Amino acid sequence: MARYLVLVFVIFGLTACAPRGRMVVDPSAARVGTVERLYIGTTRSPDPETGDPFGSGRSGVTRYLQLDVSVPPERKPGQITWPSKRGPAQPATDFLATGETLYAAPADFRAALRRDLPPQREAIVFVHGFNNNFPEGAYRLAQIGHDLDIKAALVHYSWPSRAHPLGYAYDRDSALFARDGLEDLLHQVEAAGARRITVVAHSMGAALTMETLRQIAIARDTGLKSKIAGVVLVSPDVDIDVFRAQADRIGRLPEPFVIFTSKRDRALQLAARLSGQKERLGNIKDIGVLSDLKVTFLDTTAFSTGAGHFNLGDSPSLISILGRLPDIDRAFAGDPTGRTGFLPGAILTVRSATEIVLSPVTALAGGTN
Predict the structure, then answer these.
(1) Is residue 228 located within the same domain as residue 143?
(2) Cis before residue 106, ω within 30 degrees of 0?
(3) What gap in Å lies between CA 82 and CA 106, rounded to an integer?
(4) Within 10 Å of residue 271's Cβ, how many Cβ atoms?
(5) pTM over 0.90, yes/no
């Protein structure tokens, strides 16, 4: 165990040393940056010691709010810059909140979200992963929404992560605790009038998402299940056998069902060791073990740097690829001989599962192998 603790500090050292996300509210930033409006459901409880309204404690009641985030103009795609504690915030370079509304009742949340749903009535629900505090998860969705120019309503589920590199066991338990909250949020989005809901989950948030989809299936909630029009799991920290059991219980998986993986994901390598395994779903080496499931694996190994645990959100090339995910469904609905043009990379199909090994050169050039 001592050896694993050393690995924790090696892999998460940069995260621990780098500035953590913090919420700074500056309404004037709206005149400088581009404002992304987020609708948030959270089961984080207030921290009585720090006064943080959305701390790492667990709340049995889901609270709902609207958060407006200014995305600064002076940045690269995939980049999030946090305001420094040593000086005033810089709207030209820092992600800043421009306004926040905490709703007194879920009905108020639904009414506001209903007004902001686009004509196609689509919503993206983002579920953050391990070691995230409240602003980090929310601002990540604002970054993705801005960089991908997403036209759907942006919805975030903020579950009670400890937001500490050594809080892995706490976060795994919190992910189980948070299942009802995510299901409740999905019901609120449905009740607001969303016809299509795409769930994007990162890391341990993928385990939470799969558990929630499983309990929706067990409840035979066909109305909500039919509204979930796609699932994207990014670097999923999920046991492969557990994923299969969850998928079997869910039945027909939402389509498209996309899993971003990387064989160089050091965070998942550590998670596998802590779990007494060789790999997790997010760094799976052989998709053949899941070949009967109708899922698409996008192998991002060639893009992995550092811990390689969120290269999708950090890489401009992968951000561009994510923006083309709707092409997956359209391409695979046609003739198999026409599959090679929709995404850059080599394609391997094993029964129902498909793996696409992405290439940085072709991704940047927009070509194919």
Answers:
(1) yes
(2) no
(3) 30
(4) 26
(5) no
